[in-house]
């Protein structure tokens, strides 16, 4: 339960007043009521003694008895009166009987004894007895000092409340501001705080109080720094930075657009965009800070979700790029030997032929065939034949360095292009390749190969002529006994090439002979998977640039490609992405792009696994 400011101030003032009174009493600055009471009793008893002496002198004892009884009866502070002779004998008595021994033990504060004399001789004494005070709350209340303190406290509390309520009303900004103005501040969409120079909240509207899950009254008087504020940057949250209102009090300048958040146990903290301006008096001195808050918690939540989606998008792009590289490698390589396949070889050959023609540079070509490879398969099995192909392919890949090009041209044939090599250099390199193959060792098996070498300078009119020349040279090497290099410039022109000695190259586009069992066809071709992955990477680029026209165009391409490859899920997602790009729905576009990339990754992974198997 929160105690109001007025009550706390009043309680403090009352305590200060009471403390002042008690200190004055301890310093004997306040009147001693007990001593005054004793003095009053002494004077009263002296008057009674004088009156009693007069009655005794007149010898009127009956009148004296009546007088004493009247005094006891009409004075509640006197319990009894006793007139004793000098020898202790009770002469007269009014009120309850008092034992002399008990009277001697009684407190001096409760009895008064006055000596009576007759003709200057001691006659006796007049004893006046007062009721003894009993301990307890009731007796405490009957004490004058107690009633005095209670009266002072009650009066001070009432007067202080009336005075401070009026005074604080003039000091409290919420009371000074007219009701309609306060209502206008409370209806503002943004939160509003007014701070003093000590960063304490002087005024708060209902909007900021509602955002902070409290009330304006509870915020008033509290230090604003008591709340766990954190300054947010684009990449991180800083809890040690200077808060904007502190900066305003320091430099006196206005600060706008600072994002603050409150520490929270939830996943998304309360976030506000804060603007601060100094409050100045007529002389330009700072009197506080005006702070406005715009609650952007929901916006920050959406931004956080968007950042997570973009992060997932970037991760998907990186994975797709990696798979694109794998697919591109698989699409251009022979799966058994990892050499270039014929399709990729022909593409590079056309490029190298064009460069050689334009620049007039030499270009050599070597075609080799493994000797008696059919007998290896027949006698040792296709698995051994595959090992021979892998071993020769690996050896040639180590020997053929860039810019040379190595291709598995047919079942047991390899073709090599050597840019910058004339016929002599080509023949020399081919001889090195032959010796390297001859040195290979397989289990219970010796392998050799025949080579045909030619070059552009020997008169080939196109790239296919160059391959035909190398093939005829290979035929000549086979006719000459195998395990040798045959040059096109040394091959007799009248040689009959119609005899089936050399293996004829497979037609362009035909896959090299597979000696193993048939594998399951993938759900999508390598070219389509690679094209799909490249298009996905383009989607990520369009998202980064927020190019919705390009995004819609790429989505349409993906839809067409997916429909042609019989991929209905991809086609449907691409169709939705095209609609989102048309309406410029960023969040939906990012979501659908992520979904497409996941589907693309699935098909690419299936294809890579199938090819690898």
Characterize this entry briefly:
The protein has 613 residues and is an alpha+beta fold. The chain has helices at residues 5-26, 33-58, 61-74, 100-105, 137-141, 144-171, 173-176, 179-186, 206-211, 216-219, 244-251, 297-332, 342-359, 373-380, 382-399, 423-439, 463-479, 526-545, 548-564, 568-582, 586-612; strands spanning 80-85, 90-94, 111-118, 121-129, 191-195, 201-204, 229-232, 237-238, 255-262, 271-280, 286-295, 363-370, 405-408, 413-419, 449-455, 485-487.
Round the mean pLDDT to the nearest integer and report it: 79
Which strand order spans the largest sheet, edge to edge or round the barrel? Answer: 6-5-11-10-9-7-8
Strand content: 15-25%
> Which geometry do the CA atoms define?
rod-shaped
Our count of helices gives 21
Largest sheet: 7 strands, antiparallel
Low-confidence stretches: 235-239, 502-519
What would you call the structural class?
Answer: alpha+beta
**Which value, in Å, is the CA radius of gyration?**
58 Å
**How many strands?**
16
Q: What proportion of the residues is helical, as a percent range? A: 40-55%
Q: End-to-end distance, in Å?
A: 75 Å
Question: Keyphrases for this structure?
Answer:
seven-stranded antiparallel sheet; single chain; rod-shaped; 53% helix; five-stranded mixed sheet; 613 residues; alpha+beta
Could you walk me through the main structural features you see in this protein, from its secondary elements to its overall organization?
The chain has 613 residues and is an alpha+beta fold. The protein is built from 21 helices and 16 strands. The strands form three sheets. A seven-stranded antiparallel sheet has the order 6-5-11-10-9-7-8. Strands 13-14-12-15-16 form a five-stranded mixed sheet, with helices on both faces. A four-stranded antiparallel sheet has the order 2-1-4-3, covered by helices on one side. Strand 13 and strand 14 form a beta hairpin. The chain is rod-shaped, with a radius of gyration of 58 Å. The protein starts with a helix and ends with a helix.
